[in-house]
Amino acid sequence: MEPDQVVAELVGMGFELSDVTNAIEAVGLSIDGAIDFLLDDSRRNTASASTSNTCITSCAGTLGKRASSSSRSASKMRQPSINEFIQSAGRPKRSKTMNKLDMSQLEVLQRDAGGCNMHPPPEDTDLHIAVEKAELPYNHKDEESIGPDWEKQVKNLLHKHFGYSSLKNFQREALETWLAHQDCLVLAATGSGKSLCFQIPALLTGKVVIVISPLISLMHDQCLKLAKHGVSACFLGSGQIDRSVEQKAMAGMYSIIYVCPETILRLIKPLQSLAESRGIALFAIDEVHCVSKWGHDFRPDYRRLSVLRENFRMDTMKFLKFDIPIMALTATATTRVREDILQSLHMSKATQIVLTSFFRPNLRFSVKHSRTSSIESYKKDFHELISIYSRKGKTGRKSKLMPTNPEENSDSSDNASNGCMDEYNGIYEVNVDDVVGDAVSESEDEVRSPGRCGLAPLKDRQLSVEYLEDECDLVQDVDDLDVSCGEFSGKLPTKGFSGFLLPKAPDLPSKPEERAKFQHEPLEDGPTIIYVPTRKETLSISKFLSRSGIKAAAYNYKLPKSHLRQVHKEFHENTLQVIVATIAFGMGIDKLNVRRIIHYGWPQSLEAYYQEAGRAGRDGKVAECVLYANLSRTPTLLPSQRSEEQTKQAYKMLSDCFRYGMNTSCCRAKTLVEYFGERFLLEKCLVCDICIKGPPERQNLKAEAIIFLQVVATHCRNFADISYGGDEGRLGEKLNIKALVSRIREQYQQFSASDLLWWRGLARLLEVKGFIREGDDMTRVQIKYPEVTNRGRQFMSCETEQPFHVYPEADMLLSMRSPKSYSSFTEWGKGWADPEIRRQRLQRKRTWKSPKKRKSRKRQPDSNTVRGRLTAKLSKKK
Ligand SMILES: Nc1ncnc2c1ncn2[C@@H]1O[C@H](COP(=O)(O)OP(=O)(O)OP(=O)(O)O)[C@@H](O)[C@H]1O
Ligand SMILES: [Mg+2]
User: Domain of life here (predicted)?
Assistant: First the structure.
């Protein structure tokens, strides 16, 4: 591979260019070698050479097997065939319940699988034993013959396969609907157990259930879990390289078939045959919010799933006694998304909506201000996390991916972070934002919204939509995340499936005293997931944490698949403490004991936020969901190809998310569940930061509100005069909020030092009251060209002493706390005009650079780009 390509691939994974050059210099032009070197970076500092060597060897072994992303197809997952599992336990044991047909089918499966190029069997022997117990297939039963005692039958199946004692209420409702041959839309919180709603029909009837699912990793995870529970399942899609699986699936050899939406469209005919032979009990569409453009994970192929309703009806298939029911399931759908789902999928008019509360009482939500951009922020924000895990890490098992505990490092935890500061010194450059409260980029939403019209705003290739989109792991197709996930080595109780009972699924505690117990309860042990917007941050933060003694690993879609599999494995085995991931570590992560979900940077929507946060506390025990975001900046849309309509919607969703962060007075859980259209009857969750701290003091901001409205109104009038005056067609320049605030500062002495941040917050409050609105037709995260409404005019002209009582929002509080005011900004700004001050500042900036950094600059003296210099150097060596 050319040096350029090697560098480009490594930088694409999120590694720093300077680290990449170091790695290539150390190991030569080998991607695998460089990745080992880079991921092992923190380990090189360990005191014990022998420990270090062992770790490096084991990791290198894993990574050595990686396939480069250019040969991704070769690394696509192969279906873990039933035979593969059985084989590992010797030859198939005859299950008492297995009938003759089952055995012959298994033999066929074994023969077939023997003929293909087998991967080594998975390491998990429990899994093999579990699948060995799989009863394939069940005796076929028509839904009508199931009878009124179906609940008893389900209970037995639950007990036998999953070890649960009973169905949850919403699961019962969904199954009742299915038994009545009706379509059903299940809306239930993350981790509530939606999968069971479509798994039971397969077990109960012996017919096949087809599950449409958006991601290969999700399908793979579910297949593995089902295999553990003795249910045969497979997945079909572009990630499936074993072609025979599809044939076997269409011949009715698996009870549950997972399939991606793209694939199902070409399988309509074979599925019709399957419906006639073994029978199809149900079409389940999981993560159905992907259908809707108004949702957060829109997938165009989901919209075409209306073919299911059209092709599997009694009137098109004469042998059917009723239309094959459709069950659509999601944890995150607003009212608008729900309507869109029903319409787009052509679900029947009689569709039942099974709705449970979206409320998760054990999740403690909070929002914290952070610049989330530098080593300083990491140190401040992760200080507590580091101390928690470094205490626990001393007794933990070793991670193959990262050093196990601070003692293994030559530096102490503190030294480690200091040492790391040197490397991060580049970040120490003067950040205007550190000095200026006012530095909220007015036009940043425009600069960074290449999606508007779908065109790149800048010519620079480095800032093209594709390039930036790629940075953020936003591109998602069905097999983009084709890595194994699942609790591979989760031990089954020794008594097997039939000898134990899990406690009844807990009902949501509704009494305040029951919920209050989550308030101060200490968090139990368990891993943390940190979500960051870009690949680069996955690496920089995981590196920072590892060097501070935490067992942390980065996870982004460009990293080698073998690394990602290892991360999944260690995560599920509880040997990793923290995963720093992009959204690539996504849907369907069903690990019970995740204790913290940290979002480090603004999420793009509340749907995405709630779904990701929902991976915490699935065991019902208290867990934390913290959002660290820069509350002094308006968030921007991550780059993506969007139509104009989609861009508007994306801004709307981002805006809702921003307002969630800015809110200081309403319970977080209430805001979240009401966003999804649920009436939150409990009023307060009692455990979020707002419920615990209480809102800030309410203030009467009538005087400020009137001044703001007057300035806006005066300007609007002037603007209208210019726009529609003599010179027809010429539009006057509208004043944006920044310019309006400048007018306020000029005209009102008492506000001459006031902060734009504060006025922005006030403008949002006025907008909520309906006193102002956006004056142009662009959708934005927050108002930019305010215009006074009739209500606003009434308020202005109101003679009475009607107060304007409000809770200051987070940015207003921040601006009040911050010593940097408008005046300090102007002073600072003026400073740059003075050559002496400028010289001193630049001098200071230069001394902030680490010696290491300067050295690396010296190393590459002449070329224009680092990459160019490296290329020249390496070519010379060759
Ligand atoms: N009736 C039940 N009793 C006890 N536990 C249950 C029951 N049903 C499901 N569970 C457990 O709930 C957990 C979550 O299940 P599942 O993955 O189906 O959630 P989900 O609703 O699909 O979540 P997500 O929206 O994140 O995909 C699983 O670990 C499962 O074992
Ligand atoms: Mg699910």
Answer: Eukaryota
Ligand with minimal distance to 213 CA:
2
- The one-letter amino acid code at 269 reads K
Query: Token digits for 746?
Result: 């000029």
Query: Of 555, 624, 564, 566, which Cα lies nearest the Cα of 594?
Result: 624
Unique residue bearing structure tokens 């930061």 = 689
The token duo for 45 is 């500092």
* Distance in Å, CA 338 to ligand 1 centroid: 21
- ipTM, 2 decimals? 0.99
Residue whose C-alpha is closest to residue 225's, from 191, 187, 203, 195: 195
User: Which pLDDT score, from 0 to 100, does residue 84 have?
Assistant: 39
485: number of Cβ within 10 Å: 27
Residue 361 token pair? 């009482």
Q: Would you place residue 837 in the very low, low, confident or very high pLDDT band (cuts 50, 70, 90)?
A: low
Whether the Cβ atoms of residue 393 and residue 578 lie closer than 8 Å to each other? no
Burial category of 89 from C-beta neighbours within 10 Å (exposed 0-12, middle 13-18, buried 19 and up): middle
685 lines ligand 1 (CB under 6 A): no
Note the ligand closest to the C-alpha atom of 191. 1
More confident residue, 473 or 89: 473
> Is the CB of residue 191 below 6 angstroms from any atom belonging to ligand 1?
yes
Higher pLDDT, 500 or 755: 755
pLDDT band at residue 586 using 50, 70 and 90 as cut-offs: low
Task: Measure 228 CA to ligand 1 centroid, in angstroms.
Answer: 15
% of residues, the chain, pLDDT over 70: 65
Q: How far is CA 445 from the centre of its chain?
A: 22
Residue 619 or 5, more confident: 619
Hey, what are 116's tokens? 């293909």
Q: Which residues pair with 598 in a beta bridge?
A: 530, 626
- Going by C-beta distance under 8 Å and a sequence separation of 6 or more, which residues neighbour residue 700? 803, 804, 805
Amino acid at 228: K
Q: How many residues does the chain have?
A: 878
Closest ligand 1 atom to Cα of 194: 21
Residue 593 above 80 pLDDT?
A: yes
Q: Which ligand is nearest to the CA of 286?
A: 2
Percent of residues in the chain assigned helix, strand, coil, to nearest 5:
50, 10, 40
Mapped onto helix, strand or coil, the DSSP state of residue 282 is strand
Q: What is the average pLDDT value for the chain, to the nearest integer?
A: 73
Beta-ladder partners of 626: 366, 598
- Report how far residue 196's alpha carbon sits from residue 472's, in angstroms, rounded to the nearest whole number: 33
Are the C-beta atoms of 689 and 366 separated by less than 8 Å?
Answer: yes
State the burial class of residue 833 (Cβ atoms within 10 Å of its Cβ: 0-12, 13-18, 19+).
Answer: exposed
The dihedral region occupied by 235, where left means phi > 0, alpha psi between -120 and 50, and beta the remainder, is beta
pTM exceeds 0.80 for this model: no
Task: State yes or no: pLDDT of 134 exceeds 80.
Answer: no
**Residue 521: pLDDT band by 50, 70, 90 thresholds?**
confident
Answer whether 612 contacts ligand 1 (Cβ < 6 A).
Answer: no
Per-residue pLDDT for 71 more than 90?
Answer: no
The arrangement of strands across the sheet holding 578-581 comes to 363-369, 623-629, 596-600, 528-531, 578-581, 552-555
Give the ligand 1 atom nearest the CA of 158: 1
d(CA 745, CA 753): 7
Distance 408 CA to ligand 1 centre (A): 38
Ligand 1 pocket check for 211: Cβ under 6 Å: no
User: Is 199 touching ligand 1 by the criterion CB < 6 Å?
Assistant: no
Structure token digits, residue 251: 């011949």
**How far is Cα 163 from Cα 393, in angstroms, rounded to an integer?**
32
With a 6 Å cutoff on the Cβ, whether 183 touches ligand 1 is no
